[in-house]
Amino acid sequence: MSAYYNEIDPFAADWLRNLIKAGHIADGVVDERSISDVRPEELFEFTQCHFFAGVGVWSHALRGAGWDDDRPVWTGSCPCQPFSGAGKRAGIADKRHLFPDWFHLIRECRPSTIFGEQVASKDGLGWLDLVQADMEGEGYAFAPFDLCAAGFGAPHIRQRLWFVAHSDHAGSQGRISGWPHSERQDQHGHIGCDGTVSGMDNTIGIGRDAGRHGDHGGDVGIEFDATFEDGSGSKTNGVWGDVDWLFCKDAKWRPVEPSTFPLANGIAGRVGRCRAYGNAIVSEVAQGLISSFIEGERE
């Protein structure tokens, strides 16, 4: 077993097991306990650890980016409810603010590479700032980005905060080339829904020219180029090229992926599916981030 999946939702946990059995994500075990009950020594036998695993999209994206199942990595999409505008916005006072529990495991197990994600909001940026401070305090190089799915050809926005943290060895002190360790709040990269990039002192991009800042003693180098692969500049591409549009009761049209089942009454497991889809990351965005990290290592 190479992978460990931590997911407390029973419906999503069963979904994970089915995906593992079908070979769609890395082989491994699914643990339905709360992350607060997981002990560091229980994780030493696993090559990959996926926390708040949902339906395994991080593993799927890693494979799509060419990351082997036997290559070590940790991933996590911490609960967004404390930092989402749709919630009560209790922030770090919310009991669902579980990064401290995840960070405890990170600090004890010292994984070399970590990918993470959180909702893009003012509160989410505050969360990201705390995460960056903790990770840099443990000697990790840290690269945060504010990316939307539309920048990758999706027919929806789904703006999210993403990060990669890397340490060549325990206790290494890494930093991103050109980034000071102060004034972090103004240094989160942003890719708008038109693919434009802003908010960084150094050039960033996802795609063909990734990795100019790699290979500097623990530095993480990632560049982003959100130009559509077909060069057309159309609103949708790739997996969403044949997007279906549904006319809704509020007289607005909304896009859905081709062959996606309609979210209607009578569909088996509708609530569980909606919850899993709502919490899932967009694989194509995660894959772009991971691919650029890999390209950066080669430079």
List keywords for this structure.
299 residues, globular, two-stranded antiparallel sheet, single chain, alpha/beta, Rossmann fold
Description:
- The protein has 299 residues and is an alpha/beta fold.
- The chain has a single domain, classed as Vaccinia Virus protein VP39 (Rossmann fold, 3-Layer(aba) Sandwich).
- It has 6 helices and 11 strands.
- It has helices at residues 10-22, 57-64, 99-109, 122-137, 270-279, 283-298; strands at 3-6, 28-31, 48-51, 73-77, 113-119, 141-148, 159-166, 189-191, 197-198, 244-247, 253-256.
- A hairpin with a 5-residue loop joins strand 8 and strand 9.
- Helix 2 packs across helix 6 (283-298).
What proportion of the residues is helical, as a percent range? Answer: 10-25%
The CATH class label is Alpha Beta
Total domains: 1
Mean pLDDT: 74
CATH fold-level name: Rossmann fold
**Structural class of the secondary elements?**
alpha/beta
Shape: globular
Main beta sheet, described? 9 strands, mixed
Q: Give the N-terminus to C-terminus distance in angstroms.
A: 32 Å
Number of strands: 11
Strand order of the largest sheet: 2-1-3-4-5-7-6-8-9
Overall CATH architecture: 3-Layer(aba) Sandwich
Uncertain runs: 170-235
State the CATH superfamily name.
Vaccinia Virus protein VP39
> What would you report as the Rg, rounded to the nearest angstrom?
19 Å
Tell me the strand percentage band.
Answer: 15-25%
Number of helix segments? Answer: 6
| Strand and helix order | EHEEHEHEHEEEEEEHH
